[in-house]
Amino acid sequence: MSQFSLSSDASLPVRDGRGRYRPASADQILDAARRVIDQKMQRGTEFTLLATVKEYLRTKLAGFEREVFAVLFLDTRHRLIDYVEMLRGTIDGATVRPREVVEEALQHNAAAVIFSHNHPSGNPEPSATDRALTQRLKEALTLVEVRTLDHIIVAGDQTTAFVELGWL
């Protein structure tokens, strides 16, 4: 089985001083997977199936060592306008400001959003803080007529969707 590594621009494998391929690091592999999912699911991709959304978000958020809070901005037919990582936090938290999410939604002319963040701990269960944040964001976005469709937590290869729990 051959091993390979991607160069920093991900266009060519990296060779060591003797011309041999170096193994890719976990971060390089995850970065390459994120680029592949960006190519596969570009602007206009429909996010009408929860399984599709979960696959996309697992690829985008799994493997980060710190919490990353992201928003999928969608049009009226739930097609992707943009995926935006709003902020990167600490190993166990990220401070999200509703005002910034509303501003971003308006800038993208979004009709709907799906929130997501990762749990580096590997536990996909939403915390009370996660629930309270989701409610605050939903209330703020409702004022500008942007629907909140879901909040999905990614923990490695596991996900938890608020919709599946009956929380949205």
UniProtKB/TrEMBL annotation:
Tell me one GO biological process term.
Answer: proteolysis
Q: Which InterPro entries does the annotation name?
A: MPN (IPR037518), RadC_JAB (IPR025657), UPF0758 (IPR001405), UPF0758_CS (IPR020891)
Q: Which residues form the MPN domain?
A: 45-168
Which sequence ranges are marked TM in the entry? none
Against Gene3D superfamilies, the record matches this protein to:
Cytidine Deaminase, domain 2
The molecular function GO annotations come to: metal ion binding; metallopeptidase activity
Print the keywords alphabetically: Hydrolase, Metal-binding, Metalloprotease, Protease, Zinc
Name of the protein this chain belongs to: DNA repair protein RadC
Which source organism?
Pigmentiphaga litoralis
